Amino acid sequence: MPLDKVTQVGQTKPLHGEIPVYAQYTFGLAGERFFREIKDKGRIMGRECSACDLLYVPPRIYCERCFGELNDWLEVPGRGVVDTFTISYVDLDGNRLRDPIVVALIRFDGVYGGIVHRLGGVGSDEVRIGMSVEMVLKPKAKRTGSILDIEYFRPVK
Predict the structure, then answer these.
(1) Distance between CA atoms of residues 115 and 109, nearest Å
(2) Is 74 a domain residue?
(3) Under DSSP, is residue 98 helix (H, G, I), strand (E, B) or coil?
(4) Is 21 inside any structural domain?
(5) Contact between 73 and 65 (Cβ < 8 Å)
(6) Cβ contact 137:143 at 8 Å
């Protein structure tokens, strides 16, 4: 019986066939507002823990240091710096790309955390750690409420 209690490994039995698995990813309470702000207002928002003096991006519901509930939302400037980066020469299916893409961890001044995103407007041979970058948004009518509403980050001129 499938509901019999298994007490030893030798009691397990294989189950043949298909088991349909359905899942729906949700952003959660903090993530929903984070993505809505990008979509509707074109801005990055973080959540602040006043007790620990930390501003979290991406936002969280609780402070990971003091476990206090985070209630205050603050706007984060859309400019940051490249903290680290990687250059990819293949796509998600393992196919070689004609032009490599650069993905970077963008850190923002006064923020704990950051955003991993593509860089644009810069060649793979020009990117460097510490480079100042700014977000480039999709036109408002084309935003869907995802991290891809930020098309990429480009060097600040």
Answers:
(1) 12
(2) yes
(3) strand
(4) no
(5) no
(6) yes
87 is written with which tokens?
């250059």
CA distance 65 to 67: 6
CA distance 134 to 104: 12
**Which pTM was predicted?**
0.80
Q: How many helices (H) and strands (E) does the chain have?
A: 1, 9
In tens, the pLDDT along 8-66 reads 878 877 778 887 877 777 788 888 999 999 999 999 999 999 999 999 999 999 999 99
Q: What's the total number of domains in the chain?
A: 1
Find tokens 């460097």 and name the residue: 128
Residue 67's CB is within 10 A of a number of other CB atoms, namely 9
Residue range(s) defining the domain that contains residue 107: 28-155
> Using alpha carbons only, how large is the chain's radius of gyration in Å?
21
* Residue 125 domain flag: yes
**4 located within any domain:** no
